[in-house]
Amino acid sequence: MLKYIISTIFVFVATIAFAQEVDSLAIERIDTLQSETKVDGCKGERVAPIRTLGQVAVIDTLSTPNSAISVLLFNDNTWRYLLAEDFRNDTTVFNDHWDTSTPYVFGDVDQNSLPEATPIRLVDSLKSYHYPHLGVITSRYGPRKGRQHQGLDIALKTGTPIYATFDGKVRFSKSSGHYGNLVIIRHCNGLETWHAHLSECSVEAGDWVVAGQQIGLGGSTGRSTGPHLHFEVRYRGQSFDPERIIDFKTGELRREELLLKRRHFSIYAKYEQDFEDEIEAEKQEEAERKAAEAIQYHTVRSGDTLSAIARKYGTTVNKICQLNNIKSTTILSLGKKLRVR
Ligand SMILES: [Zn+2]
Prior knowledge:
- The protein is α+β, with helices and mostly antiparallel strands.
- The protein folds into two domains: 28-50 and 89-278, Glucose Permease (Domain IIA), CATH 2.70.70.10; 297-339, Roll (Membrane-bound Lytic Murein Transglycosylase D, Chain A), CATH 3.10.350.
- The protein has helices spanning 2-36, 85-90, 271-294, 306-312, 317-324; strands at 58-63, 69-74, 79-83, 117-121, 137-139, 142-144, 147-149, 152-155, 161-163, 168-175, 181-187, 191-198, 200-201, 208-209, 214-217, 228-235, 238-240, 246-247, 252-253, 257-261, 297-299, 337-339.
- The longest helix has 35 residues, at 2-36.
- The radius of gyration is 29 Å and the shape is elongated.
- It starts with a helix and ends with a strand.
- Residues 1-43 have low confidence and may be disordered.
- The structure holds zinc ion.
- Zinc ion binds at residues 139, 149, 151, 153, 230.
């Protein structure tokens, strides 16, 4: 009996010690990531890609004080967070419009029924992100020779590994018409990433994958004129320009949160074009702000006359009359606010 009590106490103490160790690891990890992230200069922070999972093996999974998150330990003494299995199975995003037999499951969702703007958290405290593949972009999102090109083409050599962009669950993994071998991953934030023309799919529908995990090999299956990755990002079936979220030059995630607007689902809504529009809109807002700042009012006091007010503010009676839609003969009531500029 005594032996049992002692061993129970030992296990209890060891558990506390271990939990603390994991906790301090967590703090260290978050600090490192924060120092790695760069400010975009525009909105939110850029996120550097996480390491790929090609060479390492998982040796243990540990629980954390947050029941939704566990820690994966690898055989090279590194680790990363993982969304706990119970939590994954519980999430409606992996139950709603879930069909592993066809790529197209949101046929009943009308584009116009979606909100004007949807904030989408691209990375959470798990901080998991990896580009799918980096290389020369051979075709961008947008109209192409009378067809709609709903993704981005990136050149590659057949057999190049393709990686999961975020953690998520494989919804579709097999050959599908002109897409060739296609892997679709649904992510916790509701986005789906589509990877087409693969020479090989390395995952099966229903598998849970983590960012940076190899999900297939690049190729030229389906309607394709040479080896490349056709990469799409969709939200409730609607595609938008993948360059909105990933900077394919650096491999970084452009920001931690995306404000996905309904107009982004248009095949003509290219990220670069949109960026220019936004700069133009910012200039316009700045001009309006300056104009608003320049407006000045005068509160009419006893003895005030329009000519005296005009002199005081270095303007003319006519100008004040115009701004306030009054005549020079209008009697000024005490306390009235007159716009003078
Ligand atoms: Zn393509």
